[in-house]
Amino acid sequence: MTKQKYHFHKGWLAATTVWFAFILFATITNAQTLSRILLKDIFGYDKPIHMILFGVQAFLLIKTKPFVSDKNRWITQSCLMSIAYGVLTEVLQGVITTTRFFDYFDMLANALGCMIVWLLIRNRKQVAS
Predict the structure, then answer these.
(1) Core-most of 3, 109, 120, 126, by most CB within 10 Å?
(2) Is the whole-model pTM more than 0.85?
(3) Per residue in 70-93, pLDDT tens?
(4) Domain regions of the chain by residue span
(5) CB atoms within 10 A of CB 70
(6) Is 69 exposed, middle or buried (0-12, 13-18, 19+ CB in 10 A)?
């Protein structure tokens, strides 16, 4: 019996992953909280900063190990590690500081910055192939 390989269209797989994350957020967040959210709260001035900070973090992490045998895996792992670091920083803000607070939207912006870097690098790599 031969092992069957599955081939996914990477763009659709990324979109599906984002949608899964959105569904998880929407289904575990308090419904009253969702009804009070305003667009200015989601896309405030600091969200692009979060995207840039963690996008650059992912990019730099990717560049730390450019000669691995499976570059696609390293790109994905680097972005996932940067997302995890973004989650950790938000948790630490909520636990150990008195001047900062835990914010789901900051975590979302952190992850979005990493996902943009992931998409750009993976797409650039495909064009170069």
Answers:
(1) 109
(2) no
(3) 888 889 999 999 999 999 998 998
(4) 10-128
(5) 9
(6) exposed
